[in-house]
Amino acid sequence: TRGEEGGWVDVMWSSSPKRALTRARRSVGRNASGKRPNMSHIASKDPSSRSDGGRGRRERQTGEPREATLLVDCPDAKGVVAASATMLYGQGCNIIETDQHACPDAGLFFQRIHFDYSECYLGSSEAAIAGLEAAIESVADRFDMKWSLSLGNKPKRMAVLVSKFDHCLYDILLRKNSKELDCVIPVIISNHDDLRHIGEQFGIPFYHLPMRIDRNFSEEQKLAAKHEQESEIELLLKQYEIDVVVLARYMQVLSDDFCDRHQAHTINIHHSFLPAFEGGYPYHRAYDRGVKIIGATAHYITADLDAGPIIDQDVIRISHRDSVEDMIQKGRNLERSVLSRALSWHLEDRVLIHNNKTVVFGY
């Protein structure tokens, strides 16, 4: 048949009435008169001639990408991956990276989906995000999913709690300034005033919240003093809209209530001598014992002291040639590197907590 502009259109019918395949073929792009057809009624080269003034599609293509990360924890079942991908595609999102892990013995499935929602059909407003969350929830209901959604255009706000040791604090601040850690650090909190100069050096507010405990206090009085100090910490966390708390060698045992409220987003670092060498001077006692390996562990806090879900660990060998000072230096180097990796993975939403274990995607 002849097309509108004189070109020829071949129509090929399939055997199924629902699948008629039309193949348009312009005769070398010219009409019967030998001239190129006028296609202005189909698409104009001038974006301003379009009904939207050429703005809509251009903004979606050239605007800054908006990225988000979806973490999924559910029973293992057929169709989980397809359902999540189809749902995101249906919302106009583009999957950038995906990682998954199945535990056949436990019947569990975990997935991390990093996607771009710049061209989400609902837009990028808060109402649109709520719509996207509703779409995720519809899939979650089908597969009994636990899920969390984190928006990449909003860096997490992190509070650093310290005592007297400065090595982890310095390392975190330097990595943040060099953009190795993608976060905002608006506050440093300490039960001692020794490291105030570091806050001043980096231009970060430093709050000294001492533990007002007398050695003659009863256990009830000590607990009341701990709760009072922690309530001050809570006020600062709320004031600065904190998303993540890091205990950068914060030498205070937190109350069960505090741990229960913040266990999913508070990360602690300690040496690997626990529980063999608890208390003061662990490296001296490890030296006297002749240990051959020392290490560090980064984990989420729980009410059970130093028993939370482990994010990262590392070790280094010790020989008879290492002095106590050598062991301390090696231990601090490990604490820096292990804590920075754990923080980086958490900030990038690569860690999924299930019971008392973690799945670290991309590790």
Question: What does this entry look like structurally?
Answer:
This protein is an alpha/beta fold and 363 residues long. Helix content is 31%, strand content 26%. It has helices at 56-62, 80-90, 126-143, 167-177, 196-202, 219-239, 256-262, 282-289, 324-347, and strands at 9-12, 21-24, 67-75, 94-103, 108-116, 146-151, 156-162, 183-190, 206-208, 244-247, 266-271, 293-300, 310-317, 351-354, 357-360. A hairpin with a 2-residue loop joins strand 14 and strand 15 (357-360). The model is unreliable at 1-62 (pLDDT under 50).
Q: Span from first to last CA?
A: 60 Å
Poorly predicted tracts of residues: 1-62
- Portion of residues in beta strands equals 25-35%
Mean of the pLDDT scores? 84
The residue fraction in helices comes out at: 25-40%
**What's the Cα radius of gyration?**
29 Å
Sketch the topology as an H/E string, one letter per element.
Answer: EEHEHEEHEEHEHEHEHEHEEHEE
Q: Numbering strands along the chain, what is their spatial order in the largest sheet?
A: 9-8-7-10-11-12-13
Derived structural class: alpha/beta
Give a quick account of the main beta sheet: strands, pairing sense, barrel closure. Answer: 7 strands, mixed
Figure out the total of helices: 9
Shape: globular
